Amino acid sequence: MSSSCASDRIDLHWHETEPGSGIRYALVQLHNPERLNAMSVSMWRQLKQVFTDIQQQRDVRCVVVAGAGGNFCAGGDISEYARFRFEINSLRSFHEDDVWGGLGAMLACDVPMIARIDGVCMGAGLEIASCCDIRVASASSQFGAPIAKLGFPMAPRELQLVGQAVGDTVARQILLEATVLRSDDMLRTGFLSEVVADSTALQAWVEQKTARILALAPQAARLNKQTLRALAQGHLAQSLETAYDYASSAEHREGIEAFVQKRKPLF
């Protein structure tokens, strides 16, 4: 968990499947409930540190990203904006260093990530969810980035990220019309993997999917994420240089041997 006692913080909770198993997953919780978990500058900086730490933990097999108090994230913490938004250099630093520092650390993390979305998922929340591999939401959740009402556009890197996740048509709709979409709309775009009835069903669904991921080969998951990232960046040739280095690994042997022996693999 984050060492900060501030109300605006990123909490990191470690969970072990069974005591002594050595198999862990992480719950990353956006915590600023008085502002519906809006992201403060401090939270963006903490987000970067949290995912940098997770990436270095080789026994972590899954990350669940969620919000505190029944909401995912309402966007940026507007109460801070007057401090830096009205000057070019400070505005650039906020987006390129603080915001993209956090989002970039998420994108660079090789551990599978599940976004557990309840309540509002706006602006910064949509960006954070876009970094996750699997996204599920309760039926009443709301999605958008109505920042045109605040007089500013989405930063280029952030727009590229969101546009790739929601698709060009939806990106234009939420930015140019300030449209707020529901979970079923986002399911149809492919942004969401599943929509469930309520927060109780949401928790159960995420627990089920987390358990499924934890039972699979963690090395394969990390390698798949590395390849997906390389392909997204147009680095196929670079990926091919090391694509088969896993050949003699213990997990590779265990998976094949378990299948031949008709038993459950132990990864």
Automatic annotation (TrEMBL):
<dbReference type="InterPro" id="IPR001753">
    <property type="entry name" value="Enoyl-CoA_hydra/iso"/>
</dbReference>
<protein>
    <submittedName>
        <fullName>Enoyl-CoA hydratase/carnithine racemase</fullName>
    </submittedName>
</protein>
<dbReference type="InterPro" id="IPR014748">
    <property type="entry name" value="Enoyl-CoA_hydra_C"/>
</dbReference>
<dbReference type="InterPro" id="IPR018376">
    <property type="entry name" value="Enoyl-CoA_hyd/isom_CS"/>
</dbReference>
<comment type="similarity">
    <text>Belongs to the enoyl-CoA hydratase/isomerase family.</text>
</comment>
<dbReference type="InterPro" id="IPR029045">
    <property type="entry name" value="ClpP/crotonase-like_dom_sf"/>
</dbReference>
<dbReference type="GO" id="GO:0006635">
    <property type="term" value="P:fatty acid beta-oxidation"/>
</dbReference>
<dbReference type="Pfam" id="PF00378">
    <property type="entry name" value="ECH_1"/>
</dbReference>
<keyword id="KW-0456">Lyase</keyword>
<dbReference type="GO" id="GO:0016829">
    <property type="term" value="F:lyase activity"/>
</dbReference>
